[in-house]
Amino acid sequence: MSDYHIVIIGGGPAGLTAGLYAVRAGLKAVLIEKALIGGQVNSTYLVENYPGFPGGISGPALMEKMKQQLEELELPIITDDVQEITTTGAGFELKLTERAINAGSIVIGSGAAPATLGVPGEDRLRGRGVSYCATCDGAFFRDKRILVIGGGDSAVDEAVFLTRFASQVSIVHRRDALRAEKFIQQRAFDNPKIDFIWDTVVEEVVGEQKLEKVVLKNVKTNKLSSLKADGMFVYVGLRPNTEFIRDLLKLDEQGFIITDEQMRTSCEGIFAAGDVRSKIVRQISTAVGDGAVAASLAEKYLTATDKI
Ligand code: NAP
Predict the structure, then answer these.
(1) Is 237 in the pocket of ligand 1 (CB under 6 A)?
(2) Which of the residues are catalytic?
(3) What CATH number was assigned to the domain covering residues 4-114+238-304?
(4) Binding site membership of 205 for ligand 1 (Cβ less than 6 Å)
(5) How remote is the CA of residue 211 from the centroid of ligand 1, in Å?
(6) What residues does each domain of the chain span?
(7) Do domains 4-114+238-304 and 130-234 have the same CATH topology?
(8) Which of ligand 1's atoms lies nearest the C-alpha of 184?
């Protein structure tokens, strides 16, 4: 007999929703989160496209509400880091930092983290002008010059947020058209503090104690230039948190977990939900949907295999 019917890995919208459905299905469940409950949404200053909140809601406030709902249902939460998952005859063993637990099924909602540019100087100046979280660090750049790298929803959304503090925000994008949702784009085009540096990538980040300037390259002309900046916020996509299951599950070429529409992974009994999954639309609303499907299918799997 396993310790738990279901272990949910990750405390973002996908994992919390899986927890909600698991408890309500009468499963003996536990949620494991290595950091703060809420995941990436905690770094979002305003969520405007999650239904039910006219005018929007702050990311941390939304996640606090989801957390409260689970506390009401008394879902146990363990703060720990899953190192490895192995299959056992009866199900799965999850190796945590200092102990192991076992379960009949698993929902992985471990999410993703901001990707880095991988250019010289970026890592050394991280936290000294280079940031991946405007909500966390934006206020340090009052009346300063900021560069935002990327052209997706995150880059453009966060660039608009950063104009609350900065004197000027330049969006540096490798093409001449943004990827972001049109509504978000228009807000940036209309903001007098925002300008755009098109067809351009970052070659190097320069500074002694803190960021001083950024070396840029125009990808059409190959011309290099340098631009003084106090802050550089990088939003060039996501890197999945899948190290711990790399050898167990089928992943896509970027490392996201491949599932079918029922959130089933390549290993029977393990489901994946939210941003960690290989998919096109990464939103809170889709993560919530994934979490509901994953827990519901896990319950069916446990029943069909006589694990409950
Ligand atoms: P994303 O949609 O993958 O966009 C990444 C951006 O970075 C793209 O514009 C890409 O350029 C650029 N890029 C990638 N690698 C680069 C490199 N090495 N150097 C320079 N630029 C590079 O990532 P995201 O904006 O972080 O969003 C992630 C997911 O969360 C998306 O599904 C997004 O829709 C969702 N999201 C939604 C909201 C919202 O609904 N409000 C807010 C935030 C995030 P190309 O365009 O040329 O590929």
Answers:
(1) yes
(2) 133, 136-137
(3) 3.50.50.60
(4) no
(5) 23
(6) 4-114+238-304, 130-234
(7) yes
(8) 41
- Tell whether ligand 1 has an atom less than 6 A from the beta carbon of residue 117: yes
Which CATH number is 130-234 given?
3.50.50.60
- pLDDT number for residue 110: 98
List the pLDDT tens digit at each of the 308 positions of the chain: 789 999 999 999 999 999 999 999 999 999 999 999 999 999 998 999 999 999 999 999 999 999 999 999 999 999 999 999 999 988 999 999 999 999 999 999 999 999 999 999 999 999 999 999 999 999 999 999 999 999 999 999 999 999 999 999 999 999 999 999 999 999 999 999 999 999 999 999 999 999 999 999 999 999 999 999 999 999 999 999 999 999 999 999 999 999 999 999 999 999 999 999 999 999 999 999 999 999 999 999 999 999 99
Q: Tell how far the Cα of 18 is from the centroid of ligand 1, in angstroms.
A: 26
Report the DSSP beta bridge partners of residue 171: 148, 196
Please write down the HEC assignment for all residues of the chain. CCCEEEEEECCCHHHHHHHHHHHHCCCCEEEEECCCCCHHHHHCCCECCCCCCCCCECHHHHHHHHHHHHHHCCCCEEECCCCEEEECCCCEEEECCCCEEEEEEEEECCCEEECCCCCCCCCCCECCCEECCHHHHHHHHCCCEEEEECCCHHHHHHHHHHCCCCCEEEEECCCCCCCCCHHHHHHHHCCCCEEEECCEEEEEEECCCCCCEEEEEECCCCCEEEEECCEEEECCCEEECCHHHCCCCCECCCCCECCCCCCECCCCCEEECHHHECCCCCCHHHHHHHHHHHHHHHHHHHHHCCCC
Query: Ligand 1: distance of its center to the CA of 147 in Å?
Result: 16
